[in-house]
Amino acid sequence: MKIERKILLNPGPATTSDEVKFAMLVPDICPREEEFGAIMNTIKEDLPKVVNAGDEYTSVMFTASGTGGVEAVITSAIPAGGKILVVENGAYGTRMAEIAETYKIPTVRYRLAYGDFPDVATIKRYLDEDATITHVGIIDHETTTGMRNPVQEVCDTAHALGREVIVDCMSSFAGLPIDLQRWQADYIVSSSNKCIQGMPGLVFVIFKKSALNALKENKHGRSFYFDIYSQYDGFRNTGQMPFTPPVQVVYALRKALDLFFEETAEGRIRRYRRNYEVLKEGLSSFGFRFLLEDRYQSGLLIAVCEPANEDYDFNSMHDFFYARGYTIYPGKGAKELTFRLSVLGDLYEADIRSFLKEMSAYLSTLNEPLKY
C-alpha cells in the first residue's frame, strides 16, 4: 500500500512516517485486555526516558488533545487556595492562564507582547512580592512565535523560592534538548502528534513521583476526567486507562517511540536543526524577514514577517502550496503579522529544499520582489 506523502510545515499534527501509519493496522482488540495494557505500560515507562527523567519521575496518559493535558495539570496540581503565575508571551501562555481562570484558580499573568522574551528577574519579583503564588506555568517552545523560553532559569528561580513549575513542552518534547535531571520541573506536558511523530489523540504528563501524595490530597472536584491521581492510580491498579483510549493511536505511539530511540535524541535534534538551518537560509535568500532575533529562535519553527506587497495574500499563498502537497500555517497574534513554518515531524533536508523550490515559484507570481 502506498500512501501519498504530504509535507506538513504546521507545528503539529506533523508529517508521519509510513511505519507509524501502518502501526495502526492491527487486529481489533478490547483495551481492557492484558495484552493491550502491557503495551500501554511500556509507553508509560518509556516516555520519561525521552527527557532523561530518571527514576524520580513517572507519567500518565489521557485521551485528549494537548490542551487537555495542560488542563489536567492545572486542575490537579494546584491545591485549593493555591495560585499560579503564568508567563504569557504567546497564545499558549494565554491559554494556560485562561484554563486556570476558567476553574476560578487565582492567576497572576506576567504579560508580554507575543514575541518578547521573558525577564527572569521580573518573575522572581512576582514571586518575592506574592507569597501566595504556589506554581509557575511557562511554555517551553512558544509556537506562536518560535521562541524558546528560559525554562531552566525559571525552574531554578522558582524552586529556590519553594514554588513548583509546570512546563508546557507540547512542541519541544523529543525535538529540543530537555533534561529533567537538570530542569527538575515538577510537571511537563506533551502530546503524541508533535516531535515524537505519532498520531493525534493522546496527551501525557510527566511528573515527580513525590507529587503523588499531594495530587491525592488535591482531589477537590475540579475535574472528573482530567484528574491525574485517579488516572495514575487506576492504571497502576488495573493496567487499564479508566476511560476508553484511542487504541490505534496507542499502537502508533509505541512505534513512534521505537523509531525515536532508534534515531536517538541527538539524531532527531540534529535532523530538525538541519531542516531549520536550510529553511532559514533559503527564506533569507528570498528576502523574507523574521519576527525573532536568532538568539531567541527555537530552531523548530520560524515566524516569517508578512511582506507588504500589494498582491501578497496569505490565503492565496497557502492554497498555492496546498495544491502542491505542502501545508503552511498562519500567524497567531504576534506583535507583527506573520506566517509560520515548522520543521518538526518526519521531515528531512530534501523536503525543505523541495519546499524552497516551490517558494521560489510562488514568489515569481508576485508583481515585484518582496518588500517590507
What does the model show?
The chain is α/β, with parallel strands linked by helices. It has two domains: 24-262, Aspartate Aminotransferase, domain 2; 264-363, Aspartate Aminotransferase, domain 1 (Alpha-Beta Complex). It is 40% helix and 16% strand. The protein is built from 13 helices and 14 strands. The protein has helices at residues 18-22, 34-50, 66-77, 91-102, 120-129, 151-160, 180-183, 212-217, 228-238, 247-263, 265-286, 314-322, 349-363; strands at 7-8, 57-63, 84-88, 107-111, 135-139, 141-142, 147-148, 164-168, 187-191, 202-208, 301-305, 326-327, 329-330, 338-342. Strands 2-10-9-8-5-3-4 form a seven-stranded mixed sheet, sandwiched between helices. The protein has a three-stranded antiparallel sheet with strand order 11-14-13, with no helix packed on it. Strands 1-12 form a two-stranded parallel ribbon. The N and C termini lie far apart (46 Å).
How do the helices and strands line up, and which of them pair or pack?
Layout: E1 7-8, H1 18-22, H2 34-50, E2 57-63, H3 66-77, E3 84-88, H4 91-102, E4 107-111, H5 120-129, E5 135-139, E6 141-142, E7 147-148, H6 151-160, E8 164-168, H7 180-183, E9 187-191, E10 202-208, H8 212-217, H9 228-238, H10 247-263, H11 265-286, E11 301-305, H12 314-322, E12 326-327, E13 329-330, E14 338-342, H13 349-363
Parallel strand pairs: 1-12, 3-4, 3-5, 5-8, 8-9
Antiparallel strand pairs: 2-10, 6-7, 9-10, 11-14, 13-14
Helix pairs in contact: 2-10, 3-4, 5-6, 11-13
